[in-house]
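Following up on my earlier thread - several people asked me to post the actual chain instead of describing it. Fair enough. Here it is, all 608 residues.
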Amino acid sequence: MKVGFRHRDILQFSLSWLLASAGCLAIEGCTGYVDRGNQPVPGTVASGTSGPSGGAGTGTSASPGATTGAVGGLGAGTGATAGGGANAGAAGVAGPGSSAGSPAAAANGPRDPGRVALRQLTSREYDNTVRDLLGTAQQPGLTFLNDEPAFAFDNNSDQQLISPMQAELYQQAAEALAAEAITAPSRSKLITCDLTIAGDACRQAIITAFGAKAYRRPLTLAEVTSYLALMAAAKAAGATPDVAVRTAVEAFLQSPNFLYRPEFDADPTSLSAHPVAPYEMASRLSYLLYRSMPDQPLLDAAAAGKLSAPTDVQAQVTRMLADPKATFSQDFSTQWIGARSLEAIQFDTTVFPGFTPALAASMKSELIGFFDDFVKENLPATQLLTANFSYIDDNLATHYGLPAVGAGGVKKTSLNSPQRGGLFTMAGPLAVTSYMTRTSLVKRGAWIMSEFLCQDPPPPPNNVPPLPTDTIMGTQRQILEMHRASPACSVCHVIMDNLGIALENYDGIGAWRTNDSNGAPIDANGVLGTSIFNGGKELSSVIAADSRFIPCVSRKMLGYALGRIPLATDEPYVADIAANTSNNPPGVRDLLTRVVASDPFNMRHGEP
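Reply from S.P.:
Thanks for posting it. Predicted structure:
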């Protein structure tokens, strides 16, 4: 009598056995840990099996403790030079006053490319990776738990954690993806030999080829042996040859080597900096520019040892940016500006009846097309704020009061309007820094401070009631005066509010206006240090000329590329990335290529 079996039972048995085996899923010699920033890692990280996805480490892991330091408070005074205020801060960039924690001081400090955190695939990276690995149209990442951003980006290792619920979602995704992989037409991509005739040789060929792509590196002999043993266990339990392959695919998709991007060291405690290995560089490049696994040219270059010379790496960057699969412009720009979820923003339709899903999509497309032009054409980074062109369609032309452009999508359009030009005057960024019923000079000012000057405002004092988020009485300038009346609030709000008020001619969804929601004439005069400005375009020119702006963009780009918050020891590299060339500001593509050429992107050391 033939004994029946349930596939899930086979997988649970086989995967538990495999996770406990010595060779396959343990990440030994990995130099990174799942970094929690200033949050201590409690005690030890146990080896073995935390749910179906397995453990991320094997043995003890010392708490990173407070290695990054607290972000510095605002410095006293309103000078134009950045300072670290009362606390030195992680990057020493938090204050408008002057102090030893300033970026200028840190830029001359010791150079250290730093450690590498153990980076987990984000939901978007997971979907892109399984698409390229399996050819699937499934997007299980849409069901995953939200990736919590840090330093504006969702790939920041400081916030990454696999919870039991996420582990279960990974298991469900692996089962659905593996089931599809062994059915036509996907089967021919995975199973390239006759499992019945070739037997073990065919199974080994499948494991070796698929595993090298799933792990983004060749498998070790021990890993191949373990997966073959897993398939043998499935077969012994009654699985067909195809189902045994499916079982192995499920295990691959739940392995830490797939779900994370581990980097290995023979001596993981050594503090001697050294270049990352070729396949690790291939993954760094691919997840920076594609947000997916390395393509075949990258894997071929890694196999040939052609990812160590700077010219080889830059050639790959040039090739990849020209590939339609490149997502750097889209992902970096929308996350940095905070406009990634524009379509999900809700406004009170009685106040802003013109805000529609179509207009939201046009706003996002404008930002992506605009930033992508800077990457492709290497336009000066300062012109991100002062450009006399944008990418608009007829939706935005109507919204901006401009002539129709007649394009099916957004089209590069010259701007001769005194109302528009650069990121600060785009409807998308203005919409995401507003409330449902009104603008917010505080949100807009804090956004400029944080994302363009890298000057994060400290949290408000305790017991300060927030301003209402709905319609309020009085002008925004009167609100500014209310903030200044409180000594505890004035040191921050005198900067934030002066920046935000310059954008008051743009309503909550970025349409131009001359009177605020209460009917009062708008006074858009503001001040930053010794600079006085009136309105969004003058503010844009002031921030573009600020000595903190290009270093801040460089810091954001470096943090995005590394998947961690830049530290004080990164400041010398930030200064290199932001440096002028022949007395001209660097282009946006210059910044990206310098990030890729920097030591923190190319090198690492272990943990003490």
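Residues 357-377 form the longest helix (21 residues). That should answer part of your original question.
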